[in-house]
Write a structure and sequence with these properties.
Length: 239
């Protein structure tokens, strides 16, 4: 059977500079961009060379809000000489810093204006993998119970109130942080300041909401000594 080939002649149109209506360039010439994408690897086709030139490309405008992330390698202190000193001080462990950050977020979720000892306690439980967090859960102290006791003790915040991005620490919370720092400094054994130090710092603030909630849920001085003993063993690493 003979093969048939069909040719269709398409009308041609010639364009000239005079019969094309150009849209005015909304951007000044100095904003023109030149995009060059060269040597773009392709898993199947090897390497392609692509070169794009344009003098009036529209900039991409996103409707999404920018996301900012703050990374901190320390925690707030009421003793500025520590922050400015060149002396080598112990550092906070990664899990302790994460617990503090989770505490700030929990304070915001509850729409509280400050980050208190109760929020840091919840932060330890939210982090969930440290010795302190496991010790609390083993003794029946869970995030749900702490959150419930927090609302009972401090009440619910105004639903129309918006917490700041970083709710400032209460005086008791700041003292708890500095207590943890001081205890590690006194020990002289090197290493990091852990979530266990953070939890024991909360327990040291007897009049604070965090201490009262822990006491209500069965934490006591004997359990505090047990946790301190476990975290003071040679070679202990919070991470």
């Amino acid at each position: 059977m003979a093969a048939h080939t069909l040719f269709t002649k398409l009308p041609t149109t010639s364009f000239s500079e005079s019969n094309i209506k150009r849209r005015p360039d909304p951007y000044p010439q100095h904003l023109g961009r030149i995009l060059r994408a060269q040597s773009l690897p392709h898993p199947w086709l090897g390497t392609n060379h692509l070169s794009l030139h344009s003098s009036n490309l529209r900039p991409h405008v996103s409707n999404r809000r920018p996301v900012t992330a703050t990374v901190s390698f320390s925690l707030p202190t009421a003793k500025p000489e520590r922050a400015n000193s060149t002396e080598k001080f112990p550092k906070w462990s990664r899990k302790a810093i994460k617990s503090f950050a989770m505490g700030e977020l929990e304070a915001r979720k509850l729409k509280y204006p400050t980050t208190g000892t109760e929020a840091i306690l919840m932060g330890i439980l939210i982090e969930g993998t440290s010795l302190a967090s496991n010790f609390l859960r083993a003794n029946g102290i869970t995030l749900f119970k702490v959150r419930e006791e927090t609302v009972k003790l401090l009440g619910k915040a105004d639903k129309y109130f918006f917490s700041p991005e970083h709710p400032p620490l209460t005086e008791a919370a700041q003292r708890a942080l500095d207590w943890a720092f001081d205890q590690k400094l006194k020990s002289g054994d090197g290493g990091e300041i852990t979530t266990s130090h953070l939890l024991l710092g909360i327990w040291s603030e007897v009049e604070s909401p965090g201490h009262k909630i822990l006491a209500t849920l069965g934490f006591n001085d004997e359990k505090a000594k047990e946790l301190e003993s476990s975290s003071s063993e040679p070679g202990f690493i919070d991470d």
